[in-house]
Amino acid sequence: MEVAKEAGIEVNRGIVVNDYMETSIPDVYAVGECAEHRGTVYGLVAPHRDQGTVLAKHLCGVETQAYTGSILSTKLKVSEVDVFSAGAFRDTEDTRALRVQDEWNGIYKKMVLQDDQVVGGVLFGDTSDAAFMQKLIKEKSPMTEEIYQKWTGHGGSGSSSGVEQLTAEDQVCDCNGVTKGTILATMQEKGLTSFNEVKRHTKAGGSCGGCKPLVEQIIQGEMGDNYDPDAESHTPICDCTELSRDEVVEAIRSKHLTMVRETMNVLDWKNDEGCPKCRPALNYYLGMVWPKEHEDERVSRVVNEQRNANIQNDGTYSVIPRMYGGVTSPEELRKIAEVAEKYNVRMVKMTGGQRINLLGVQKSDLPKIWEELGMPSGHAYAKALRTVKTCVGSDFCRFGTQDSIQLGIDMEKAYEGLSTPHKVKMSVSACPRNCAESGIKDVGVVGVEGGWELYVGGNAGVNLRGGDLLCKVDTEAEVLEVTSAFLQFYRETAAYWERTSMWIENIGLEKVKAAVVEDLENRKRLVNRLEEALEKREEPWGKDVNDAKTRTTWYKEPELETTTKQ
């Protein structure tokens, strides 16, 4: 707004735009929360998409209808109850209402008519008719006997459901602009059979989650009796058991199980020894539920975590020491160079996480190199925090608004060694130019004037995903508090091997916000549980270097074995 004012652009409650989103200065446009159209500033996602569509076509010279405003609608979950409203839903002297109230099932429906046209409504307890209502409002449908029968539920066997009345062009997910036709076409093309698969491939239901009932109705209509909405929540963690992730975690908690073999025995595992899929998962879940009592079982970890290094395709290993916030020193660089030369390291390479990778290290040389480096493990092999990438920040950059380096260092020291369901990457950028690529990290922090924005669930891997804005905070202490709560919520609710990007799509961003940002008491509890888990951390390289038995068992050093026997 301030920029617009200074530029001489007309502003009121927002930047005033016409029906093609053009401001008072030709060829300057505004859309979204900053734009005021016909006296209205829209704060919801769907109107912004409508505005963007009109503007994009206008700029490209494609014929388009003018933007005349959007029908406001919103879906919420209040105390676990679904609520939906759209259009002009309040009673006035010029309106009449058609109400349905079912106190037994906790359902209330209200349709508002003006001049016998549908202009708005409210749904409480059951929002499955939301898309049907929006369609009626958008088309300014006159009330008919068919609509009346459908709304009141008196249509008999011949009446059709709301989802059946939607056309392929009708929008189902307002947050991400997904139509019924897109969902059906994607299901047929990719063979999708579940809500989470549809959400993953189309983004329908991936933001607020309010359209989930409607999406499930579409899936049900396409698959018929073959659709099982509960199938995903009961997927066994592996072939050794019929129990799902949630069932296993609940059993660990309720039966106070603390060891992998004990868990497999008590829960009647089909394979007494478990498998490479379930043993690491059980080891993680036990440590997550009982951080003080569970003793980490090295033999149940994957091979990289057993050796505290990544095995390469030729059987050698890589060594990546930690460099907090991507910052190093001449002394550290000299140590790395000396070690690389002494142990004939095949390649020294910079990583994307602002660290140095020593490639081609023999297994027996691993503890020797760690000892001579005297640097902590970078956990590049682990389901844990990998890196906190930073830009140079306000200390050096002309555009930096915040001290990104120090915050990055603080975050890395706070969470290094924390066990998580999958690897976690973070970054801190000092300004919205985002030089540290904070938009594609599990946790990305961006400095803005007067504070920080936190983005979560980003991924730069095979399945590229931009991070979701979790919240904006004022101080570095708040960044750490929210990040701690987010990490603990992820630790407690995600499946082992599940990245934050996939987890957020499955659980829904609104649920994460509710647990981590909005419920302050719950946030404190999450932070306290995370701090309890952090108390048990040990630096793995230093621990192995100082344990002769471990060096013999895991790194097979003949000289140490001889010394020990003497």
UniProtKB/TrEMBL annotation:
Residues 172-220, 237-286 form the BFD-like [2Fe-2S]-binding domain. Residues 3-38 form the FAD/NAD(P)-binding domain. Pathway: Nitrogen metabolism; nitrate reduction (assimilation). Residues 73-140 form the NADH-rubredoxin oxidoreductase C-terminal domain. One of its GO terms (biological process) is nitrate assimilation. GO terms for molecular function: 2 iron, 2 sulfur cluster binding; 4 iron, 4 sulfur cluster binding; flavin adenine dinucleotide binding; heme binding; metal ion binding; NADP binding; nitrite reductase activity. Its cofactor is FAD; [4Fe-4S] cluster; [2Fe-2S] cluster; siroheme. It comes from the Bacteria. Residues 312-374 form the Nitrite/Sulfite reductase ferredoxin-like domain. InterPro entries: BFD-like_2Fe2S-bd_dom, BFD-like_2Fe2S-bd_dom_sf, FAD/NAD-bd_sf, FAD/NAD-binding_dom, FAD/NAD-linked_Rdtase_dimer_sf, NasD-like, NiRdtase/SiRdtase_haem-b_fer, Nit/Sulf_reduc_fer-like_dom_sf. It holds the Pfam family Fer2_BFD. Residues 382-523 form the Nitrite/sulphite reductase 4Fe-4S domain. Keywords: 2Fe-2S, 4Fe-4S, FAD, Flavoprotein, Heme, Iron, Iron-sulfur, Metal-binding, Nitrate assimilation, Oxidoreductase. Belongs to the nitrite and sulfite reductase 4Fe-4S domain family. NCBIfam families: nitri_red_nirB. This is Nitrite reductase (NADH) large subunit.
